[in-house]
What does this fold into?
Amino acid sequence: MSEPIWNEFLTERDKQVFAASGFGARQGFGKRPVLLIVDVSYNFCGDRPEPILESIKRWRTSCGEDAWTGVKAIQRLLAAGRAKDLPVIYTTGVRRPDNWDAGAWAWKNSRTRDRVSPQGLDLDGDTIVTEIAPERRDIVIYKQKPSAFHATPLIDYLTLLGADSLIVVGTSTSGCVRATVVDAFSHNYRVAVVEEGCFDRAQASHAMTLCDLQAKYADVVKLDEIITFIATLPKGLFELPPA
It folds into this structure.
């Protein structure tokens, strides 16, 4: 088995502390999981795979090529989930045309007002990328803050579905994914974070966030493992919207 992605960023002391403290125990999967795809939009992926330093010239929050590697993993996850009729919930951002409602986002980023689509592209940056576009029965939640739970109906939909767990992918790992997972943990949902399906702008932030999530809030799992788990689920667990 390969070493965890975060190991290269840990000191020997860190590794000893994790080993001795009891953190990082495996919680296991739930029985009624929902797939949650966090913010996989053009704003965070750019409009094509390209090096991040090129992509962020046009899409300031892009994660560059890593985003498109993540999209490929999410495609596989969605195929497995839809084969079992699991609910799929997407999140993406929403903002006034004048960007007034950026609120606190404007305090920590000098390019917050830069929300114009790149020249020659008729794309709304908050549109979920075509490669994993929602289907008619999927649920799309619009949010303005990092957590998918903050001021959204997500918890109401999970209650309606009778879900007991979430399988989470998306971006950014250290931002909206982390905030969403911590809130899901706070609501006592079991959470599995699919490593290959998450991505970020900073490699160290991505790795260390996965480390923190695995230690305290979720099981960080490989794509192949979660697909194998989904295959064991009976079909028809949920009453979904009409297709």
Notes: The chain has one domain: 27-131+139-231. Helices lie at 12-21, 42-45, 52-58, 65-83, 154-161, 173-186, 203-216, 223-231. The chain is about 35% helix and 15% strand. The domain at 27-131+139-231 is CATH 3.40.50.850 (Rossmann fold).
